[in-house]
Every structure is written in C-alpha cells, then in structure tokens.
Amino acid sequence: MPMARDAAETRRRILASALTAFAEDGFAGARVAAIADAASSNQRMIYAYFDSKEGLFEAVANDVIERMHAEVPFTPEDLPAYALALFDYAMSHPEVVRFQARRTLEGQPATARELELYAEKLEAVAAAQAAGALRGDDEPVALMVRTLGAVSSWVQAPAGLRPSLTGIDLRERIREDVTAIVEPAVRVRGAVD
C-alpha cells in the first residue's frame, strides 16, 4: 500500500507544480524539467504518469475543473448563489483563475471531461427554464456565459480600477448582476417603440 500512496502523492505534487507553471508561463513557456524539480520528482515520472507535456496540461485542466465542480455546488435554479460560490472559489484559488485565463488567451481547447460537465450544467439550466425558475427567453448557454462573465469581470478587473473597488461589496454586486441576468424580464425581443 505505501507504493500506491507514494504514487498518488507524487502525481498530486506534479499536478500542483504544473498548475503553477502553466498559470505563470502558459503552455509554451512552462518547462517540464522545472515542473519536475518543483514537484521533487523527475521528468521520467512526469512522462510515466502523463505521457507528454500535452497530457500533463490536459490532466491539470481536468483536475482544475473536477475540483471546482466538487467544491462549487451548481444551483441552476439559483444562479446568483452559484455565481457567489464561484466568486469565493476564484478569490481563494488565484492560481486557477490565472490558469483558466492563460488557457483562454492561448486558445487551448476544452477537455472531453470539461465539455461533459458543462453539457450537464446547460441541461440543468434548460430544465430550470422549463420549470419556470429561470427566464426562458434566453438560450441556456447565454445565461451561463453571462453568469460566468459577471463573476470574471469582477475577479479580473483591470489593475487601474482595483484601487477604486475599495468599499464596494463585490459579493453583493455580483448577486445584483447575476440576478439581473437570470430574472424573468419584461422584455420583448424585436419590439418596436
């Protein structure tokens, strides 16, 4: 049993070191040798566990999404609560925010597991819309993108604006923003004045 525990611990250290490296340097800039050193491991172990740098990157992406999925309860009938939980998670895991931002900037594709988890969320949003818990006049993907955008816009506010955020209750502002997005609105698309 100690061998299995050691293998799991080694894999965990490698993933943690790789998350830091990919978040700081992106896929192209991160070096497998540096990741191995930071994990108190070696490159051979990285290739044994993950096959390639690409495999390691995908494993980090899956680990990030799985941990976030486990720690942030998805409440499609209450997207403002989900947004606040996601905000709290992002604020306590800045390396995840940096990693996801790098992935987006680099145009990295979603992993199969990530696509699966988001498909489940979209199905849940559609079900909440059908039940009348969410506005039904917008696509589920639009509600999700706008909800996630409300969170990320505050988490990743430009450096020049951050000093001005002092005194603003960001959690309350996010709740207001997401509530405005998801509440049924008195709005008719294409209405003529």
UniProtKB/TrEMBL annotation:
Residue ranges of the annotated DNA-binding region, renumbered to this chain: 31-50
InterPro entries: Homeodomain-like_sf, HTH-type_TetR-like_transc_reg, HTH_TetR, Sco4008_C, Tet_transcr_reg_TetR-rel_C_sf
One Gene Ontology MF term: DNA binding
Biological process, per Gene Ontology: regulation of DNA-templated transcription
Pfam families associated with the record: TetR_C_21, TetR_N
Record bears the keyword Ubl conjugation: no
PROSITE patterns: HTH_TETR_2
Keyword DNA-binding in annotation: yes
Domain of life: Bacteria
Alphabetical keyword list: DNA-binding
Residues annotated as domain HTH tetR-type: 8-68
UniProt cross-references to Gene3D superfamilies, sorted A to Z: Tetracycline Repressor, domain 2
UniProt name for this protein: TetR family regulatory protein
